[in-house]
Amino acid sequence: MPPTKPTKGRFKGLLGALLPLLLIGCGGGEIYEGKFGSPSHRIECLRVTSEDSILRFLLSKNGSISRLKRSSCPFEIRATAHFVTSCTSPQAKALGSDFDGFLRLELLENGRLLYRNQQDFKGPLTQRVVDTLVERLLTVNRP
Q1: Given 83, 89, 114, 118, which is the most exposed site by the fewest CB atoms within 10 A?
Q2: Closest by Cα among 70, 71, 62 to 44
Q3: Cα separations (Å) of 97 from 90, 104, 133?
Q4: Do the domain assignments include residue 8?
Q5: Distance CA 63, CA 50 (A)
Q6: In a domain? residue 71
Q7: Is residue 15 a part of any domain in this protein?
Q8: pLDDT tens track of the chain, all 143 residues?
């Protein structure tokens, strides 16, 4: 019996099943984290520091941060982003990379590191990556 051609309905069903898997693969990767201490009290305010203006903008769009943001607060989120395109290592350029950069957030209380998380990203740094790390940081550090 000759093989049958897939019908449009089966093709759409297959595409519908595979599309979410493709999109998940393009999202942020695993979150790497380390906890070095616990907050002395509930986090009711945050200062946000970053040398990158785009990163500061993305952080300011996060709802949790915008509600907690204060200029004077013992808790600080220090944000750092690194983009592989800014890497000058000839070895890194020759071998390429399976990610385009990473975002690292650190939570400090009065200058003491309490928690750090980091996630690699492919493509541009997105609000989704920022929000994922911020929410993880705040969830893990609830007393």
Answers
A1: 89
A2: 70
A3: 12, 18, 22
A4: no
A5: 18
A6: yes
A7: no
A8: 555 555 555 444 433 433 333 333 444 579 999 999 999 999 999 999 999 998 999 999 999 999 999 999 999 999 999 887 644 556 555 545 566 889 999 999 999 999 999 999 888 889 999 999 999 999 999 87
**For strand 101-109 and strand 112-121, is the pairing parallel, antiparallel, or unpaired?**
antiparallel
- Which DSSP symbol is given to 46? B
Type of residue found at 27:
G
Q: Which two tokens stand for residue 121?
A: 């990203």
Q: What is the DSSP pairing of strand 31-35 with strand 47-49?
A: unpaired
Count of structural domains, the chain: 1
Burial 12-39 (b: 16+ CB within 10 A, else e): eeeeeeeeeeeeeeeebeeeeeeeeeee
